Automatic annotation (TrEMBL):
<feature type="transmembrane region" description="Helical">
    <location>
        <begin position="111"/>
        <end position="132"/>
    </location>
</feature>
<feature type="binding site">
    <location>
        <position position="86"/>
    </location>
    <ligand>
        <name>Mg(2+) 1</name>
    </ligand>
</feature>
<comment type="function">
    <text>Catalyzes the conjugation of the 1'-hydroxyl group of D-myo-inositol-3-phosphate (also named L-myo-inositol-1-phosphate) with a lipid tail of cytidine diphosphate diacylglycerol (CDP-DAG), forming phosphatidylinositol phosphate (PIP) and CMP. PIP is a precursor of phosphatidylinositol (PI) which is an essential lipid required for cell wall formation.</text>
</comment>
<keyword id="KW-0460">Magnesium</keyword>
<dbReference type="InterPro" id="IPR000462">
    <property type="entry name" value="CDP-OH_P_trans"/>
</dbReference>
<feature type="binding site">
    <location>
        <position position="69"/>
    </location>
    <ligand>
        <name>a CDP-1,2-diacyl-sn-glycerol</name>
    </ligand>
</feature>
<feature type="active site" description="Proton acceptor">
    <location>
        <position position="90"/>
    </location>
</feature>
<dbReference type="InterPro" id="IPR044268">
    <property type="entry name" value="PIP_synthase_PgsA1"/>
</dbReference>
<feature type="binding site">
    <location>
        <position position="68"/>
    </location>
    <ligand>
        <name>Mg(2+) 1</name>
    </ligand>
</feature>
<keyword id="KW-0812">Transmembrane</keyword>
<comment type="pathway">
    <text>Lipid metabolism.</text>
</comment>
<comment type="subunit">
    <text>Homodimer.</text>
</comment>
<keyword id="KW-0443">Lipid metabolism</keyword>
<feature type="binding site">
    <location>
        <position position="65"/>
    </location>
    <ligand>
        <name>Mg(2+) 1</name>
    </ligand>
</feature>
<feature type="binding site">
    <location>
        <position position="73"/>
    </location>
    <ligand>
        <name>a CDP-1,2-diacyl-sn-glycerol</name>
    </ligand>
</feature>
<feature type="binding site">
    <location>
        <position position="79"/>
    </location>
    <ligand>
        <name>a CDP-1,2-diacyl-sn-glycerol</name>
    </ligand>
</feature>
<protein>
    <recommendedName>
        <fullName>Phosphatidylinositol phosphate synthase</fullName>
        <ecNumber>2.7.8.-</ecNumber>
    </recommendedName>
</protein>
Amino acid sequence: MLKLLRPAVTRVLSPLGRALARRGISPNVITVLGTLGVAAGALGFYPRGQLFLGSVVITFFVLADLLDGVLARMLGNGSVFGAFLDSTLDRVGDAAVFSGLILWFMSTGQAVLACVALFCLVAGAVVSYAKARAEGLGLTCDVGLAERSERLVVVLVAAGLGGLGVPYILAVGLWLLAAASAFTAVQRIVHVYRQTVPT
C-alpha cells in the first residue's frame, strides 16, 4: 500500500537529498542518525505518556529511512553494506518504538496491552526475518498484509491519536496490528513452503 506513496515522498525529499549530497554527507550517516532519533523519541517520550509528541518526533526521523536511499542514488554510492545497515537498524528502531510503549503500559498498570505490544514486536521481527531468510536462500518473499511501513503507520497513528485523547484507539490499533502481523508471518511461511515443497 505505502509503496504507492514512496515516489511522491521521494520527490518531496529530493531537494534535501541534493543539499546533503553537495556537502558529501554519507547515506549511512543519515541511517544511523535516523535510528538514533527514532530511539530517542520512543524511549524519551513514550514511557512518560507523551504519546503524541513522541509519535511526531519518531515520524520525523522515520523519514530518514527514505532520505538515505534518495541520497545514495544522488551520490551514486549505494552499497551492499548500506542496505545491510539500513535493514539492521530498522529492527533497532522498531524495538525502541514498542519498548517505549511497553514501558508506559507497565507503568500505568496496563499489563494486557503491554503483552499485545510485545507480541507486535516479536511478530514484526518474525515477519522481517522470514523475508530476509527466504531471500538469503534465493527465494522470493515479497508478500504480506502488514509490511514494516504499514506496521509503523498503524502504531504511530494509534499512539499519536491516543496521546490526543482519542479513547480506545491505541488499544484497537495494537490488537489489529497484532492480528495483521501474525497473519503476515503465516502468509510468508506459506509462500516459501509453496516454493520449496513439490505439490
